[in-house]
Design goal:
The chain is mostly helical. It has 8 helices and no strands.
């Protein structure tokens, strides 16, 4: 690293050059963190020369290699497979969307028992399940629990009620069953909202 009038700028440039394999957003985050660390260290220890501050941080190549290893480790632990060199996947769909689709599927069926209520409810439930399963906001175990409690269990309950002869218009017992399933779905959606990754 050559010496110039601004050793901090040269240091950060060297880190940026060595970390060029990182995605741009991660590289900028790394540089911002280093710059902040340098500023804080200089403010807390004004007697320390800038060369000593930079020496404490370490060699730019080592910092870049560490960041690359951490990025690769994070990509290897991610639930979604990516191609080589692809940036980390961000959630494109807000986590509230699949939860609302799953929760609102049953009220549409209950309020509009004739078409298009049931068709919209089933389509809403399927879309919500697909968005939940492809989301980056939950782990595989949380997604599985969400699909089982919001899609599979209610479907089994409704199929059992319809096949046992109760049918969709059998009065109070069906209404209470629908209400219980609605509370189950809403409770599961609330739990998924609480445990989501931000």
């Amino acid at each position: 690293m050559k010496t110039s009038a601004d050793p901090v700028r040269d240091y950060l440039f060297a880190v940026e050059r060595e970390a060029s394999a990182l995605p741009a957003d991660r590289r900028q985050e790394l540089l911002a963190d280093l710059a902040e660390h340098i500023d804080v260290t200089r403010a807390e220890r004004p007697d320390l020369a800038i060369g000593e501050v930079l020496a404490e941080l370490g060699d730019p190549r080592t910092i870049a290699e560490t960041a690359l290893v951490e990025a690769a480790r994070g990509a290897a632990g991610a639930p979604v497979r990516r191609g080589m060199g692809a940036p980390a996947r961000r959630g494109k769909v807000h986590p509230l969307v699949p939860l609302l689709l799953l929760t609102l599927s049953l009220p549409f069926i209950m309020v509009f028992p004739d078409l298009p209520g049931p068709a919209f409810g089933v389509l809403s439930r399927i879309t919500g399940a697909v968005l939940l399963c492809t989301s980056v906001h939950w782990t595989a175990v949380q997604k599985t629990a969400g699909v089982l409690l919001c899609v599979v269990l209610p479907t089994v309950v409704f199929a059992t009620a319809n096949l046992s002869g109760g049918g969709p218009s059998s009065g109070a017992p069906t209404f209470l069953a629908n209400l219980a399933v609605l509370f189950l779905i809403a409770g599961t959606a609330a739990w998924l909202w609480r445990v989501r990754r931000v």
